[in-house]
Amino acid sequence: MPFERLALHMQHDYLAGIKVTRLEFEQFENRMNTMAAVETTRPAPFGAITTYRAINGVTSVFAALSAWNDARMTRNALNRLTDRELDDIGLCRGDIDLIGR
User: Fold this and answer.
1) Residue 90 domain boundaries
2) 101 shares its domain with 61
3) What predicted TM-score, i.e. pTM, was given to this entire model?
C-alpha cells in the first residue's frame, strides 16, 4: 500500500508540472482516436480475401481426407478382429460399418 501512495504522489507531482489546458487535451484525444480509427479500418489488400478462402478450402479438403482415412483405417483394423475380440470391446460386426460415417 505505501508503494501505491508513493506512485500516486509521483504521478500527481509529474502531472502538476505539465500545463495542459482542457481544450489541448481534448484535441489531442480526438487526434489519437482518429488515428486509431484510420489504422484499424484499412481495407484488405487486393486478392487477400480470395487467397484466404482458397487456402481455407484446401485445408478443409485435406482435413476431410484425413478424417476419412482415419475412419477407414479404424474400420480395417476392427474387421481384422475376431468376433470374440469385438465382443470384448462391446462391438459386433454390424457396428463396424457405422464407425466414421
Assistant:
1) 46-101
2) yes
3) 0.50
